[in-house]
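REQUEST ID: PR-0412
SUBMITTED BY: lab tech R.K.
PRIORITY: routine
TASK: structure prediction, single protein chain
INPUT:
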Amino acid sequence: MQYLLTPIFFLTIILSTITTIPIIVSMLLCFTVIFRSPWVFVAALFGGLLVDVFLLRTFGITSLFLVILTFMIFLYQRRFEIQTVPFVFIASFIGSFIYLKMFGYSQILVQALAASLLALFLFKILSRFSRVYHEL
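STATUS: complete
OUTPUT:
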């Protein structure tokens, strides 16, 4: 499963620099919800740094946002059942909305909705792969 996630992660970083939809937020949210592992913090750190380099932003600002978002999801896992479709949709919508607002994008609601629908799609696919991987 780890060999499948690495190319998907780097593809997400490249797509995040091409389009204005925050795909990196959706992907990290799905990784956090499904795997619940500390390596997601490292992925958030390096993914954010790479997005900053590609988009010529202040170095580390995206990493800081992604690490805080990942930390918030880990905090809420004790209060809520985070491996559900409504949680993934709402968390990705709120995370994408804040990300887009923070970096000054336009048409925030439409892009946040698109990122939330993408997160639901990724959540369904990754959870299916995760179940198959754990059964082997």
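NOTES: The two ends are 11 Å apart (CA to CA).
REVIEWED BY: pending
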